[in-house]
Amino acid sequence: MQYIIRASTASEIRAGVKQTECKFGSFALLFFVFWFFAAAGSRGGVLNGLDTAAFVNAVVANPIIAAIKDDDGLKKCLVCDNIRIVFVLYGDICNIPGIVRRLKAAGKIAVVHVDLIIGLSNKEVAVDFIHHSTQADGIISTRQTFIHRAKELDMNSILRVFVLDSIALSSLEKLESAHPDFIDVLPGTMPKTIRKVCSIVSVPVLTGGLIADKEDVIAALEAGAVAISTTNQAIWEM
């Protein structure tokens, strides 16, 4: 179960975080945040978003995914009718619940790249934080342990993989042991590599990175990717 924090508590969070960070350092900072959101559970909560089947179907039905890396991207995707799915590539432990809440209020499917959230550790407990403290529909990570933990929490998950050489390509089958819902291959401008990945793995393939125009999108989709993600706002409008 995840917990929704009242807007009136925002000042409490930031004040507590600042005091804790100054006195005890980053470990105590993380502990404080978990304590605060756990304590908020008594105020009520809601379940996380889409189940796996609905999540997979939504991604397949929406082949262009907005990836946002700052508040400007957030504002733009909130009013973009062409975009239903959003990859959140920025934020910290104080503002990520609010970022996700705004996306959900706009009817978007929000997927958080947990590796990129400032203030979270490189331990699996980071996934628990996203699960319990936000309304996220799923996570992205390059860490197989995070994907395993997401499955334990019944969270949707995307395993991001950088395929830069033959060694990375040959290890893809082993990555499926983490049981992600999708494998996200970067960069997204290598149709031959995407086609090869699709022939190796049994889960649906996403791609992104360096996609600059309509031709790149078409090439990736024709190579077998079910969807592409991009921060290029012009492509969102395609």
Structure description:
The chain has 238 residues and is α/β, with parallel strands linked by helices. The chain has two domains: 1-47, no CATH class; 48-232, TIM Barrel (Alpha-Beta Barrel), CATH 3.20.20.70. Helices cover 45% and strands 18% of the residues. It contains twelve helices and ten strands. It has helices at 10-24, 26-39, 52-61, 71-78, 96-105, 125-133, 144-152, 166-170, 172-175, 191-200, 214-222, 233-236, and strands at residues 2-3, 45-46, 64-68, 85-88, 109-113, 138-141, 156-162, 182-186, 205-208, 227-230. An eight-stranded parallel β-barrel has the order 3-4-5-6-7-8-9-10, surrounded by seven helices. It has a two-stranded antiparallel sheet with strand order 1-2. α7 (144-152) links the parallel β6 and β7. The longest helix has 15 residues, at 10-24. It is globular and about 40 Å long. The model is unreliable at 1-14, 20-24 and 39-46 (pLDDT under 50).
Spell out the key features of this protein.
TIM Barrel; 12 helices; 10 strands; 45% helix; disordered N terminus
Biggest beta-sheet profile: 8 strands, parallel, barrel
Helix count?
Answer: 12
Order of helices and strands: EHHEHEHEHEHEHEHHEHEHEH
Using the CA coordinates, give the radius of gyration: 18 Å
Give the mean pLDDT: 86
How many domains, as an integer? 2
Helix content: 40-55%
Number of strands: 10
N/C terminus separation = 37 Å
CATH topology group of the largest domain: TIM Barrel
Structural class: alpha/beta
> How does the overall form come out from the CA principal axes?
globular
Strand content: 15-25%
What is the assembly state of the chains in this entry?
single chain
- Unreliable stretches (pLDDT < 50, length at least 5) are 1-14, 20-24, 39-46
